[in-house]
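Narrative summary of target 7.
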Amino acid sequence: MAESRSSSSPKSGGSGGGGPNGPGSVATDWTELHEVCQKLLRDSGGKKVLLCRADDGEVLSHAGAPGFLDDNASEALAGLVADLAFSLAAGSAAVEEASLKLGEDRGAAGTLVGAHAILVVLFTTGGDTVGLTSVERVKTKMRRASELLGRLMDSTPARLS
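Modeled conformation, tokenized:
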């Protein structure tokens, strides 16, 4: 089954095995991560998805529109990512998943992606109103995406460089 891939995803460009988007190329690797983030955004009903390195918080891939966070929400989100990263660094992984409210109508949920990264979904909250989603729906979709991202990241070490 042939599949067309775009090279406009984050971290694309670079060299590897078969040139841009060729087998084993860095561009293909980053494109696959980006595609999983895009799918999670659609499936979860979220507004923004971030995939961050666990060791330094660098954003590896993202999906969604800008402008969802103000300064206070950004600080709270940084705390969520830091809590998950510290748990992973301590080797306990006691906290594998976390969520928080970002004001009256927004929330964030995060989970560990193996020993490599942290996946975060930002979403609007409240009822069954169109455009809003529940934290449980987000967490369910996030867990599935986390498993796939973990397998993708484990399969090629260059994904995190």
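Residues 46-160 form a domain with the Beta-Lactamase fold (CATH 3.30.450.30).
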